[in-house]
């Protein structure tokens, strides 16, 4: 072969390579699955204060969704899951996410309890062009300042928590508020979101006290709340802090004279507190096992495996996994952008989501519920804890797009 | 009448609550001081043993149907027994080594105990009711004080002072102190020093378990409850002077009060104020407020 023709040959090879590279996204969108496997990573708090909310329960729920999907669709590709403990440390979480995306071929990470970890993980996902669908963390920063096209916020957020319970309580006559706020990003954003809702509905905030995370004694803060004579004491905290605050309020006779509003309360918290202590409290949730036949069916199946009823986060993780796998099937690829495009076009109604749709800022908007905790006499069977006071349509519960601070949305 | 913009009545209420918390600090730091003062072991598993005390009470209620008063008696003995086993099997081998080894071992034990409980019971915790005799609240004029909290203050003060009296004022206490100063000489007088040391560790652990039982009706019984409180308690011990019995009691109560005041005036700092005081004390009196330089 002459040097000329060799040169021409090389050009042809190069041109072919360029054409292939250009076409790659298309072919990928049509058929390719990385390694012929869809791998889902459950990144959660396995050992710390949120491990009852997500933790091993989220792993169980994800596995259930995978098993159900495989049984129904018999896909030609493999689906598996890996899980890890992020220890509530953003650096541990981000490193794990990076390792999973880079070397373990993980396509989608879910759960991601704890807002700080979630924000760090969302950044990694964007960098790697892989997906993270968050069911655990609450901060609205995930769909505002820290939004990106590879991060979806699924089950709830602090705005919806505030909007549903806050609005209902103010409109029900609880006009004056006092906050007990966990002194970190989550608590502060919950307090400020709720304050906005209270004021917009004609209520007032008489004061607040910022307590440290894991402050086991709440009597002192509650006495300050009592002295404020506010009608409602808003608990802008979570997990063990909420539990101990409710317990102390009961002991000091603050309830029922003043109403407690738990702004983020999971069914695991109520189970742990017992109805005797938590009765009458109003709260927001995105899901409850005893809403209808579908939710009851899932709740009982989950109970068989986990020996407790699922929280909103655990049920949400099942829903994420199932809807993600369906989107992968429709898209024919595990490419994050292609899958997200499918999810954006879909209207969701499953056991978890009611009227769910995915917004451009990454928010999965769906109906939320205002609940009241039953009295021990009202509760007829195990885990019969809530009465549905109101179903709030997603568009009323979640932050309107007009208020969005997400740069991605402003651009378009 | 107001003090710095806070009504005096509210302030009195907060001080009283500070005293309740201080009682826990005193009881826990007392156990640490006994163990450190007499065994030279920095017992990092103290928080986990406190949690075990609370769980012992909960388990007796849940599985055996035994109430609070039985727990107050049996839980310290049972958990103290665990302490004796730990001392016999593990700690004993470390007495001749640097303090650091005891610290590492007990820290490891704490992690294991907490891990086992977390695996078994989850982290949301279990509720424990206030015993019926102590239910209700008393109106003190400036605040409504739940009777149970008043009981906690009284009980822990009695236990603390009794412990101080035994160690500092009785013949048994004299043996104990002599045994740590010069074990060989004391042994030569026919006293079984290793057994005495073992029982002392068991007693220190029992004090932690009593604190756990006292705390059970107030806070949720939870595998992480020990690790939440233990760091503060160590700060109390350092401020009071490592190993000083009276120091740990007085400092425990005092810091409870200071923490209570911080919660009123600047709640954000209430988790750190103890450590600020610790830093200042270490700068001015490295041996602690009641400690003796060695």
Describe the structure.
- With 412 residues, chain A is an alpha/beta fold.
- Helix content of chain A is 46%, strand content 18%.
- Chain A has 2 domains: 35-156 and 291-366, Response regulator (Rossmann fold, 3-Layer(aba) Sandwich), CATH 3.40.50.2300; 159-285 and 369-396, Rossmann fold (3-Layer(aba) Sandwich), CATH 3.40.50.2300.
- Chain A has helices at 3-30, 55-73, 90-103, 115-128, 158-171, 185-200, 219-227, 239-251, 267-273, 275-278, 293-306, 312-331, 336-345, 394-397, 407-411; strands at 37-44, 78-85, 108-111, 131-134, 151-153, 176-182, 204-211, 232-236, 259-262, 282-285, 347-348, 356-358, 364-365, 368-373, 386-392.
- In chain A, the strands form 4 sheets. A 5-stranded parallel sheet of chain A has the order 2-1-3-4-5, sandwiched between helices. A 4-stranded parallel sheet of chain A has the order 7-6-8-9, with helices on both faces.
- The radius of gyration of chain A is 23 Å and the shape is globular.
- The N and C termini of chain A lie far apart (54 Å).
- The relative contact order of chain A is 0.13.
- Chain B is mainly alpha-helical and 294 residues long.
- Chain B has one domain: Orthogonal Bundle (ABC transporter involved in vitamin B12 uptake, BtuC).
- Helix content of chain B is 71%, strand content 3%.
- The longest helix of chain B has 32 residues, at 8-39.
- In chain B, 50% of the residues are buried.
- Chain A binds chain B through residues 47-52, 183, 209-212, 214-217, 219-221, 223-224, 227, 239-240, 243-244, 247-248, 251-253, 268-269, 271-274, 277, and chain B through 7, 10, 13-14, 17-18, 20-21, 115, 118, 122-127, 130, 137, 143-144, 146, 148-149, 218-220, 222, 224-225, 228-229, 260, 263-264, 267-268, 270-272.
């Amino acid at each position: 072969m002459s040097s000329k023709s060799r040169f021409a040959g090389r050009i042809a090879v190069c041109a072919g390579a360029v054409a292939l590279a250009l076409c790659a996204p298309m072919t990928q969108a049509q058929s390719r699955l990385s390694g012929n496997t869809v791998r889902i990573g459950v990144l959660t708090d396995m050992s710390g204060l949120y491990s009852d909310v997500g933790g091993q329960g989220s792993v169980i729920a994800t596995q259930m969704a995978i098993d159900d999907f495989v049984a129904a669709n018999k896909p030609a590709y493999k689906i598996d899951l890996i899980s890890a403990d992020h220890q509530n440390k953003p650096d541990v979480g981000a490193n794990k996410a990076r390792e999973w995306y880079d070397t373990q071929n993980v396509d989608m990470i879910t759960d991601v309890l704890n807002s700080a970890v979630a924000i760090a993980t969302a950044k990694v996902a964007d960098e790697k062009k892989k997906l993270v669908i968050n069911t655990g963390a609450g901060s609205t920063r995930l769909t505002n300042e820290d939004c990106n096209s590879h991060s979806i916020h699924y089950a709830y957020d602090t705005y919806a928590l505030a909007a549903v319970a806050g609005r209902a309580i103010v409109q029900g006559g609880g006009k004056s508020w006092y906050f007990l706020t966990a002194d970190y990003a989550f608590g502060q954003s919950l307090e400020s979101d709720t304050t906005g809702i209270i004021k917009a509905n004609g209520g007032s905030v008489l004061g607040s006290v910022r307590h440290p995370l894991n402050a086991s004694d709440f009597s002192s803060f509650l006495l300050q709340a009592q002295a404020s004579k506010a009608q409602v004491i808003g608990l802008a905290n979570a997990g063990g802090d909420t539990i101990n605050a409710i317990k102390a309020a009961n002991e000091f006779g603050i309830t029922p004279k003043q109403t407690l509003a738990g702004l983020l309360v999971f069914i695991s918290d109520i189970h742990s507190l017992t109805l005797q202590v938590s009765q009458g409290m109003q709260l927001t949730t995105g899901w409850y096992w005893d809403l209808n036949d579908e939710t009851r069916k899932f709740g009982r199946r989950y109970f068989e495996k986990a020996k407790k009823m699922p929280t909103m986060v655990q049920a949400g993780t099942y829903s994420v996994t199932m809807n993600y796998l369906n989107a992968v099937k429709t898209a024919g690829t595990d490419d994050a952008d292609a899958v997200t495009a499918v999810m954006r076009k879909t209207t969701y109604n499953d056991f978890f989501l009611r009227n769910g749709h995915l917004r451009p800022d990454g928010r999965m908007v769906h109906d939320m519920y205002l609940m009241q905790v039953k009295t021990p006499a009202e509760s007829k069977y195990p885990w019969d804890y809530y009465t549905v006071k109101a179903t709030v349509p997603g568009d009323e519960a979640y932050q309107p797009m007009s208020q969005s601070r997400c740069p991605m949305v402003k651009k378009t | 009448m107001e003090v710095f913009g806070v009504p005096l009545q509210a302030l009195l209420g907060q001080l009283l609550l500070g005293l309740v918390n201080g009682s826990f600090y005193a009881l826990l730091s007392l156990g640490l001081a006994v163990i450190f003062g007499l065994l030279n072991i920095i017992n990092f598993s103290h928080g986990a043993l406190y949690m075990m005390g609370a769980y012992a009470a909960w388990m007796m209620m849940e599985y055996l149907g035994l109430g609070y008063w039985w727990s107050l008696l049996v839980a310290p003995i049972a958990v103290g027994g665990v302490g004796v086993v730990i001392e016999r099997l593990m700690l004993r081998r470390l007495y001749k080594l640097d303090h650091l080894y005891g610290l590492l071992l007990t820290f490891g034990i704490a992690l294991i105990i907490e891990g086992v409980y977390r695996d078994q019971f989850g982290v949301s915790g279990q509720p424990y009711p206030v015993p019926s005799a102590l239910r209700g609240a008393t109106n003190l004029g400036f605040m409504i004080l739940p009777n149970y909290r008043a009981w906690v203050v009284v009980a822990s003060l009695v236990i603390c002072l009794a412990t101080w009296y035994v160690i500092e004022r009785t013949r048994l206490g004299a043996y104990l102190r002599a045994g740590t100063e010069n074990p060989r000489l004391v042994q030569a007088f026919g006293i079984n020093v290793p057994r005495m040391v073992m029982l002392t560790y068991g007693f220190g652990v029992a004090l932690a378990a009593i604190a756990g039982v006292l705390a059970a009706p107030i806070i949720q019984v939870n595998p992480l409850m020990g690790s939440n409180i233990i760091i503060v308690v160590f700060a109390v011990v350092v401020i009071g002077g490592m190993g000083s019995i009276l120091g740990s009691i007085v400092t425990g109560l005092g810091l409870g009060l200071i923490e209570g005041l911080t919660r009123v005036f600047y709640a954000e700092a209430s988790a750190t104020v103890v450590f600020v005081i610790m830093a200042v004390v270490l700068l001015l009196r490295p041996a602690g407020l009641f400690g003796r330089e060695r």
